[in-house]
Amino acid sequence: MIRPQLPLNALRAFEASARHLSFTRAAVELCVTQAAVSHQVKSLEAQLKVTLFKRLPRGLMLTSEGETLLPVLRDSFDRIAQTLERFEGGHFREVLTVGAVGTFAVGWLLPRLADFQAKHPFIDLRLSTNNNRVDVAAEGLDYAIRFGAGAWHGIEAVRLIEAPLSVLCVPQIARQLQAPDDLLQQTLLRSYRTDEWPEWFQATGLAPHVASTRSIVFDSSLAMMEAALQGAGVALAPPLMFARQLASGAIEQPFAIGITTGSYWLTRLQSRAETSAMAAFKGWLLQAAHPH
């Protein structure tokens, strides 16, 4: 199929004129004469064999054909401009879109992003967070970092790190906790995964059913830990992801006992070809997760 040569100057003249509804203002924007803009538009109309503007005494009005063409051109020119902006210093800036469970993003990834940017300055990372429920295909993600057992249909998963769960709370509550069964007098903060507290109590030697005390359920560990920081109760969360709060003394870990219910994984669609930006991020992430 032979493609017709695109009349780029004429298309640009039409798009500018359509935005301003004026040949004169379009000419000022394009740094040409009003006559040149008018000529380009007429040339385009002749090539397409349609009328794009109704010429009025005080300006222009788009015809239905013009209204059909304008959004297509506007989108095309915007995409061209965005692509050209990604060329810098002889390099093409690649876009990398990553979704991550919020706990991992805030507690582990964000403190290390400056290192990634320093090592890969021509990768534009776009990071979104979620509560571990993500649709990689529907959201157009290159990668998703999620928590679980590593088995998702149609997904390639590379294990990053384990993050055992343990009891975290403010110092005022920690002072009241001399033994695990002291937790029965506290409000237990938990995620939507109902098995975590019973497993932790079982690991201490207590019967799992003792976890059926008063509790508050959260859809994200970040919200749960914010409640814990405000003294609303005792959370079961990964200390590794809240290392800064532990270091500052804002929260404490009253018991060393932890349970492992899964790991964090770097995942992508098996059908998704790995780009150079994806390979760079994967390599950096694995090195950061396993430095030795």
Structure description:
- By secondary structure, the protein is an alpha/beta fold.
- It has 3 domains: 8-85, Arc Repressor Mutant, subunit A; 93-162 and 263-289, Periplasmic binding protein-like II (D-Maltodextrin-Binding Protein, domain 2); 166-248, D-Maltodextrin-Binding Protein, domain 2.
- It has 11 helices and 13 strands.
- The chain has helices at 8-20, 23-30, 34-48, 64-85, 102-109, 113-119, 171-174, 196-204, 221-229, 243-248, 276-289, and strands at residues 53-56, 59-62, 87-88, 91-92, 94-101, 123-130, 143-148, 155-162, 166-168, 188-190, 215-217, 234-237, 263-269.
- It has a 5-stranded mixed β-sheet with strand order 6-5-7-13-8. A 4-stranded mixed β-sheet has the order 9-12-10-11, with helices on both faces.
- Helix 1 (8-20) packs across helix 2 and helix 1 packs across helix 4 (64-85).
- The longest helix has 22 residues, at 64-85.
- The chain is elongated and about 85 Å long.
- The relative contact order is 0.13.
- The mean pLDDT is 90.
**What is the CATH topology of the largest domain?**
D-Maltodextrin-Binding Protein, domain 2
- The strand count comes to 13
Whole-number mean pLDDT: 90
Q: Determine the strand fraction and express it as a percent band.
A: 15-25%
Biggest beta sheet attributes: 5 strands, mixed
